[in-house]
Amino acid sequence: MKVDRLINILAAITLIEMMVTIGLGVTLSDVLRVSRSWSLVARAVLANYILVPAAAVGLLLLFEPIPWSLSDFLSPRFAQGRPTGPL
Questions:
Q1: Which of 52, 64, 81, 85 can bridge 11 by disulfide, Cβ–Cβ 3.0-4.6 Å?
Q2: Mean pLDDT value of segment 59-81
């Protein structure tokens, strides 16, 4: 097995393990308590879907990277919730 394939498998396993661990540590009452705070939910949405992508685009405009690296940089910022590891 090649090293890059092994790294891909280990990254996927680690990501799944972390998501399960965090998910099992949160109770339904914790989720409901946080969801009742509309200002907190609004700030989280603003940060995750507007500010972080805007910062990513700003960094791209500032540093002008080579074209083939643009998709690698922007994909995790605009596809929130998808795995960002080397799968």
A1: 85
A2: 68
Gap between the Cα atoms of 25 and 19, Å rounded = 10
CB distance 15 to 83 below 8 Å: yes
- Residue 47 CA, chain-centre distance (Å), reads 12
Task: Inform me whether the pLDDT recorded for 17 exceeds 80.
Answer: yes
pTM of the model: 0.52
Which of the 8 DSSP states describes residue 75?
Answer: H
DSSP 4-33: HHHHHHHHHHHHHHHHHHHHHT--HHHHHH
79 in helix, strand or coil? coil
